[in-house]
C-alpha cells in the first residue's frame, strides 16, 4: 500500500446525500473487542451508512477479525472488520478456519498494519538470515506478530529452532532488547510503535528492510503487501524502510445487494477526513488504496464503485 498516492480525481467530495439510495434493510455489522479502535470506527460508519442508504438500519455488535469472518460465512452477520491475512486464510480454508469460506467478499481496505523487525544499530545485523543463533523476541504464540515472525524466518531458511526464541509481551520484549537477551524484536502493529520507541529511548536501533521477502511471503499468504515506514518515524531513522504489511479491511456477505454495498463503499471514500478523526492511520486513503488486491475477491457492488473510480478489481 502506498500511502503517498495522489487521490483519484473522480469527485470523492460528492455529498453523501446525493448517493442513489439502496433498498431498505437491516444489516448486522460486527466490529471489534472492547477498548479497540474498531468499535468507535464502526459507530462512525454506522451513522454514515444509515444516512446514505434510505431506510437502512445498522445493528452494531462487538467482534474480532476471525470471528467476524466466520459469522459472515455462517449468515450470522452481514458486514465486519477483518485483518487481510486471516481473511485470506478463511477464503482458502486454512487454519484456524475449517473450510473455504465462499460467502465472504472484500469491500475496502482501510489502513495498513506493519510487521517490523527491529535490531540494535550496532549489532551487525543486516538481514533476517543474520539472526541464526541469536536471541529473537516476539509475541505469545497465536498472535499475529508471532505468526509473521515464524513465517519471515521460514522464508529465509530458518525456524524457531535456529534462533533463541522468546514468546512474550511487548513489555518483556522491550526489556530483552534493552538488556541484550534479544538482538531482534518482531511485531505487527501500526506506526510508530510505542514499544519500538521505548527501545529507541535506551539505544540506537534500526529496522530491517524486508522488501526482498515479499514474494516468498505472498506464497504463504497472498494477503501480504509491502508498506513503507517513512524516514523519521523513529529516532535517527534517516531513510524510508520497506516492511511486510497487511491490512484492516471491511468484508461483507457476498449475498448483500450490490446497490447497498456500492453506496456503502462510496460513502467510505467520501468521508475519509471524518474517519481519520477516529483512526489517524486512515489519513490519505483514496479509492486506489481501498481497492488494493489483498487476496480477497471484491463484492460486485464495491467493484462497481471502483470501476467508476478507474480501478479494476477481482470479484468471485
Strand content: 15-25%
Q: Give the termini separation.
A: 22 Å
Main beta-sheet annotation: 10 strands, mixed
Structural class: alpha/beta
Tell me briefly what this model is:
By secondary structure, the chain is α/β, with parallel strands linked by helices. It contains eleven helices and ten strands.
Description of the molecule:
Helices cover about 30% and strands about 20% of the residues. With about 325 residues, it is an alpha/beta fold. Strands 1, 2, 3, 4, 5, 6, 7, 8, 9 and 10 form a ten-stranded mixed sheet that branches. Helix 1 (about 40-50) crosses helix 8 (about 260-270) and helix 5 runs parallel beside helix 6 (about 195-200). It starts with about 25 loop residues before the first strand and ends in an 8-residue tail after the last helix. The model is unreliable at about 1-25 (pLDDT under 50).
Amino acid at each position: 500500500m502506498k500511502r503517498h498516492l495522489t487521490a483519484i480525481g473522480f469527485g470523492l467530495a460528492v455529498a453523501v446525500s446525493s448517493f442513489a439510495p439502496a433498498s431498505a434493510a437491516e444489516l448486522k455489522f460486527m466490529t471489534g473487542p472492547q477498548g479497540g479502535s474498531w468499535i468507535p470506527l464502526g459507530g462512525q460508519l454506522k451513522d454514515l451508512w444509515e444516512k446514505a442508504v434510505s431506510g437502512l438500519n445498522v445493528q452494531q455488535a462487538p467482534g474480532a477479525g476471525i470471528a467476524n469472518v466466520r459469522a459472515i460465512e455462517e449468515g450470522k452477520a452481514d458486514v465486519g472488520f477483518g485483518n487481510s491475512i486471516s481473511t485470506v486464510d478463511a477464503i482458502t480454508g486454512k487454519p484456524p478456519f475449517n473450510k473455504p469460506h465462499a460467502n465472504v467478499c472484500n469491500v475496502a481496505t482501510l489502513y495498513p498494519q506493519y510487521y517490523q523487525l527491529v535490531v540494535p544499530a550496532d549489532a551487525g545485523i543486516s538481514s533476517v538470515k543474520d539472526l541464526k543463533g541469536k536471541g529473537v523476541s516476539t509475541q505469545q504464540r497465536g498472535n499475529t506478530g508471532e505468526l509473521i515472525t515464524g513465517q519471515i524466518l521460514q522464508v529465509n531458511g530458518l525456524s524457531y529452532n535456529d534462533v533463541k526464541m522468546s514468546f512474550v509481551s511487548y513489555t518483556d520484549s522491550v526489556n530483552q532488547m534493552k538488556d541484550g537477551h534479544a538482538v531482534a524484536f518482531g511485531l505487527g502493529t501500526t506506526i510508530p510503535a510505542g514499544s519500538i520507541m521505548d527501545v529507541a529511548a535506551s539505544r540506537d536501533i534500526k529496522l530491517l528492510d524486508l522488501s526482498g521477502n515479499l514474494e516468498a511471503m505472498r506464497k504463504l499468504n497472498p494477503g501480504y503487501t509491502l508498506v513503507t515506514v517513512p524516514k523519521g518515524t523513529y529516532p535517527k531513522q534517516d531513510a524510508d524502510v520497506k516492511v511486510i504489511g497487511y491490512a484492516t479491511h471491511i468484508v461483507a456477505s457476498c449475498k448483500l445487494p450490490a446497490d447497498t454495498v456500492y453506496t456503502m463503499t462510496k460513502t467510505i471514500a467520501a468521508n475519509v477526513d471524518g474517519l481519520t478523526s477516529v483512526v489517524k492511520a486512515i489519513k490519505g486513503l483514496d479509492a486506489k488504496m481501498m481497492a488494493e488486491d489483498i487476496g480477497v475477491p471484491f463484492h460486485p457492488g464495491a467493484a462497481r464503485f471502483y470501476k467508476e473510480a478507474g480501478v479494476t478489481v477481482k470479484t468471485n
